[in-house]
Amino acid sequence: MGTNTNTVTLRKQQTGIFRATPPQDSGRNLRKGVWQLARLHTKEAWLCWYPAVWGLCLSAGTQDIRLNILQMAKILFGIWSSVTVTHCAFCTWDDICDVDFDKQVERCKVRPLPAGMLTVGEAYVALMAWLPVVFGVTYLTLGEAGVWTFTPVWVLSTIYPFMKRVTSFPQIVLGAIIGAAVFPGWASVTGDLTTLSQGLPLFFATASWVVYFDLFYAEQDRPDDIKAGVKSLAVLLGDHVHYFLAFLGLLQIAFFTLTGLRAQMSPVFWILGLGVWAANVIWHVASLDLNNRRSGGKIFKANIMLGLYMTVISVLELAVSRLSISDLGSIGQSLIGMQVS
Questions:
Q1: What is the pLDDT of residue 156?
Q2: Tell me, what's the pLDDT at 138?
Q3: What is the rounded distance in angstroms from the CA atom of residue 129 to the CA atom of residue 107?
Q4: Which residues does UniProt call coiled coil (predicted)?
Q5: Would you tell me which CATH number, out of the four given (1.10.260.40, 1.10.357.140, 3.40.50.620, 3.40.50.10860), belongs to the domain 9-16+31-323?
Q6: Could you tell me the residue ranges of all domains in the chain?
């Protein structure tokens, strides 16, 4: 792709977590088109699942709620399914909104809509089919509290494509979208919306993390953006980006610390969770090489794995400190139909 200002601007507007992963082939294929519009061929939805699980674990810790194995499994399934269908619906919406941009950007021409796998009208039909699924799955698995706490995620996801047209910092909206997933996780345990404010430190930790790793991703495009005169956070910060990344890293650590203190987390969180997270932040910032365009992309991918790691640690911490096993006998009896002594 050349360095035409409009083209690069359009390319820049397509970056971020909700960007489509280009399929390997194109041509008319309705089934594949619907599948790939929903990003069902990628693992992107897991990024939105992490903070919801963190919210679940935080809620149980803060409210001193003990869960049995079946309760935990049911809530995790509800969060996973609700997050996944929400991601499917709004990624479809994002591609519908961006179809004219994608047609003009070389690397985006193979996406389902510009590649001709399906028409915009068919994409709208797919979107309309997803929306009741989103509401139904969320209500059936997480209840009324889940619907209310997912509403901000749905609203922000609706306006996200348009924010990319009016601001150079859509990652802030993206941070709010993913960060807001903390609250459905919280409410799935308590069913109480009046205590959601206690999850705000975790929300801000998550939102700052999203902006943080998205900035690493944007560093890959900074040289082209400078040549084309495109405004972006990466261009604005220039060679001072390390300082801002360090600031975002400190915000994450500070808000995670406040979160842990409020929830009276065990040493599992402080040592294996926050300790490892802080070490990774130092490594990320120190290893970013502004002269190597691949450096930011590698650190971006490392952050995705870091999020998965923290999710595992959060569940482990909950199991150690809050998960009740006193009723394993009755659970076993209900599962296999035999008396467990």
A1: 94
A2: 96
A3: 28
A4: none
A5: 1.10.357.140
A6: 9-16+31-323
User: Exposed e or buried b for every residue in 260-280, given b needs 16+ CB within 10 A?
Assistant: beebebbebbeebbbeebbeb
Q: Give me the residue label for tokens 């595992």.
A: 312
- Give the residues of the chain that fall short of pLDDT 50: 1-25, 228, 325-331, 338-341
Q: What is the pLDDT of residues 249-292, one digit of tens each?
A: 999 999 999 999 988 888 899 999 999 999 999 999 999 988 88
Q: What span, in angstroms and rounded, lies between the C-alpha atoms of 232 and 219? A: 10
Residues 96 and 123: beta-carbon distance below 8 Å: yes
What's this model's pTM, rounded to 2 decimal places? 0.79
Classify residue 230 as exposed, middle or buried by CB count within 10 Å of its CB (0-12, 13-18, 19+): buried
Q: Are 48 and 87 in contact (CB under 8 A)?
A: yes
The confidence score (pLDDT) of residue 106 equals 54
Q: Are 232 and 12 in contact (CB under 8 A)?
A: yes
Residue 67 has phi, psi (to 5 degrees) of -115, 145
Q: What is the pLDDT of residue 227?
A: 61
